[in-house]
Specification:
With 481 residues, the chain is mainly alpha-helical. The two termini are 40 Å apart. α8 packs across α10, α8 packs across α12 and α9 packs antiparallel against α10. The longest helix is centred in the middle third of the chain and has 23 residues. Among the domains are: 133 residues, no CATH class; 127 residues, Orthogonal Bundle (Cyclin A, domain 1). InterPro entries: Rab-GAP-TBC_dom (IPR000195), Rab-GAP_TBC_sf (IPR035969). Keywords: GTPase activation, Phosphoprotein. GO terms for molecular function: 14-3-3 protein binding; GTPase activator activity.
Length: 481
């Protein structure tokens, strides 16, 4: 299949969109088919979004356009499109996105050389953020020292964790109860390994298990990544990784990008039912940061040079991130199979849940042509990692990993609580444009652990309130009201 190539104008800039989406089949992604000669009316949400130059939301919109045909007012869409397009074009007119893709298997030296060339072409430098702007839907840069929870002023909580973790046979239920309200930084890495099911409860078996699983990952790298690669899967991952968290210098380092590339490629090959899906790269990040903080305690991670760690330390971070990601995604793999039916199901559940909880807000969104799929698809696909700062994501995942019956159902209630949090602002918006800009750009840049604690508490309250009437979720998944 021919690879997609961007069309450039005379100045070498892409004429229409910031990133061109390859017109080919990608495992786990629905294909959008548009006839060449068909005149678009501009009356759909898909055409409104397709006109917006946005590097980060384009992939999500491709999914939406393939599985939904939501119609909105033509007048509203045209007004919104004109305003947003003009705003985005002003901010992107000087951006050069001529990104070349390294095809086939290359030696590591060539991979690094190509990556450095790509970074220069998009106006950035390794370890820096020049030429980069704020993208809607991406958390703003924060001091990653904020990963250290304010709750750690209480030494008694850390002591309780240490007592549980040092037990000869771990009481997993007790560990979950402790972790639900947040895990101290010093105990987080080992606790996450245990909650993810990567480490056994028996303390005597943990060292042996870690040694064996890390050796297994090295074998997988040789077997899949260092051998002949599946071209389409590798190409898509290779394109996505440089776009990841552009305002955080750590993720622009070549060493970090290659580590993520290996993790995602091997996971995709080992999960052929879904393959690689855009957004899974965001789900590696929390594990990577937690294990990096374990290897570099007390360091400011925003600009931390990963090459300063030993090769063994980097291998441990990479292997543990891979295995914990694999365990974490096992319960939600239906989110990433063809057409991502699991997410469609959950979006319908969220719609019905909000209709029952807050009919006025639900009708306000419906009246102005906002469909839940248009904003909550990304919330479900990326587990809110693009909506809240990274330290807040890590605190949220403390609770996700501690959910005794799996976090997949609980995340639905978290999304409901998240939407309800913005209720007052949403009710003040009187048109489609204002609603969508708020929903895709929620102002969470100053959020902290306390905000997440309130969010999960409200989610728990909602879950408890509906515990005696679970049929509302099953019925909602079958029909879109």
């Amino acid at each position: 299949m021919e690879s997609h190539q961007a069309e450039h104008d005379k100045n070498g800039l892409v004429a229409e969109t910031f990133w061109r989406t390859p017109q080919r089949a990608v495992p786990g992604r629905p294909c959008q088919r548009i006839q060449q000669n068909k005149v678009m009316s501009g009356s759909s949400y898909q055409q409104f979004q397709a006109s917006v130059n946005d590097a980060w939301d384009l992939g999500d919109d491709d999914i939406i356009s393939g599985i939904a045909e939501t119609k909105i007012s033509k007048a509203i869409s045209q007004t919104a499109a004109i305003n947003v397009i003009n705003s985005h074009r002003k901010s992107t007119k000087n951006v050069n996105n001529d990104v070349k893709v390294n095809e086939g298997v290359k030696p590591m030296e060539e991979v690094v050389a190509v990556r450095k060339n790509e970074i220069r072409k998009i106006g950035g430098v390794p370890g820096g953020s020049s030429g980069l702007r704020h993208y809607p839907g991406r958390p703003r840069p924060v001091k990653l020292s904020a990963l250290t929870s304010r709750e750690e002023s209480s030494e008694s909580k850390l002591e309780r964790f240490q007592q549980v973790l040092e037990s000869a046979v771990l009481d997993l239920n007790e560990l979950k109860q402790l972790s639900w309200s947040g895990i101290p930084t010093k105990a987080r890495a080992v606790t996450w390994r245990l909650l993810a099911g990567y480490l056994p409860a028996n303390a005597e078996r943990r060292a042996e298990t870690l040694e064996r699983k890390r050796a297994d990952y090295k074998h997988l790298v040789r077997q899949y990544y260092d051998a002949d690669r599946e071209e389409d899967t590798y190409r898509q991952i290779h394109i996505d990784i440089p776009r990841m968290s552009p305002l955080v210098a750590l993720f622009q380092q070549i060493t970090v990008q290659v580590m993520f590339e290996r993790i995602l490629y091997i996971w995709a090959i080992r999960h052929p039912a879904s393959g690689y899906v855009q957004g899974i790269n965001d789900l590696v990040t929390p594990f990577f940061m937690v294990f990096l903080q374990e290897a570099a305690p007390g360091k400011e991670l925003d600009n931390f040079p990963l090459d300063s760690l030993t090769e063994e330390q980097r291998n441990i971070i990479e292997a543990d991130s891979f295995w914990c990601l694999s365990k974490f995604l096992d319960s939600i793999q239906d989110n990433y199979i063809f057409a991502q039916l699991g997410i469609q199901y959950k979006v319908n559940q969220l719609k019905e849940l909000i209709r029952r909880i807050d009919l006025q807000l639900h009708e306000h969104l419906q009246r102005h042509g906002v469909d839940y799929l248009q904003f909550s698809f990304r919330w479900m696909n990326n587990l809110l990692t693009r909506e809240i700062p990274l330290p807040c994501t890590i605190r949220l995942w403390d609770t996700y990993l501690a959910e005794s019956d799996g976090f997949a159902t609980f995340q639905l209630y978290v999304c409901a609580a998240f939407l309800l949090h913005w209720r007052e602002r949403l009710m003040l918006e009187k048109d489609f444009q204002g609603l969508m800009i708020l929903l895709q750009n929620v102002p969470t840049q100053n959020w902290s652990d306390s905000n997440i604690s309130l969010l999960v508490a409200e989610a728990y309250r909602l879950k408890f309130a509906f515990a005696d009437a679970p049929n509302h979720l099953h019925n909602a998944g079958k029909s879109d009201r």
